[in-house]
């Protein structure tokens, strides 16, 4: 299933739980430097688009494009691998939590590098599923989603990017997959899960098995006992990265 088909299927309630997290936005906007013109690739509903710059967005899903606010940046239908712009058309190109959906992520990143002088990408390192309790203890199927895909190091190398870690605050406003690391009950909420593509990609059987096991462990106190060190953390390192080139 392509990213456009996936989000045309699951994206109807995306804006309920997916909002801009200020501290992550600040990191992205700082990384954009003095760029005045910005291309947002795989833009979705427009989260993290800097409000003080000239932004143009590209998004393949019609449903996601339809949920952009009236004052959001103009958005074209299109994919990362074939950006319809001349070389060096933009000061910067950004992509937030989208590279893992691209059929050919290296081609997409190289296209971003071609059309912009600076590239800023928010993505994640999938090489160690064990660093997050949800994938380690409840959703082993997560690892299968990334089998055969380019590693984070390969993605960075393709565009000569440096990698910077991004910690996730415990009260993260943007409900992406790792956002509720200190709020495990949130994963029992179907509205939360519908805003996270991982659940659709692993399928209903894996989803329900994970939810059932987590519900039992929360009720019995097993989760609290096993992961008690998380309660005192204000932010967690769970493999989220900025690629900056």
Explain how this protein is built.
By secondary structure, the protein is α/β, with parallel strands linked by helices. The chain has one domain: Rossmann fold, CATH 3.40.50. 36% of the residues lie in helices and 17% in strands. The chain contains twelve helices and nine strands. It has a seven-stranded mixed beta sheet with strand order 3-2-1-4-5-9-6. α5 (105-115) runs parallel beside α8 (152-159). The longest helix has 17 residues, at 204-220. It is globular, with a radius of gyration of 18 Å. It starts with a helix and ends with a strand.
Number of domains: 1
- Class from secondary-structure proportions: alpha/beta
Average pLDDT: 92
Q: What is the H-and-E element order?
A: HHHEEHEEHEHHHEEHHHHEE
The low-pLDDT segments are 6-12
Strands in their spatial order, largest beta sheet: 3-2-1-4-5-9-6
Number of strands: 9
How much of the polypeptide forms β-strand, as a percent range?
15-25%
Q: Cα distance, first to last residue? A: 29 Å
CATH superfamily (homologous) name: Vaccinia Virus protein VP39
Alpha-carbon Rg, integer: 18 Å
CATH class: Alpha Beta
Q: Helix amount, in percent?
A: 25-40%
* CATH architecture heading: 3-Layer(aba) Sandwich
Q: How would you describe the shape? A: globular
CATH topology: Rossmann fold
Number of helices: 12
Tell me the major beta sheet.
7 strands, mixed
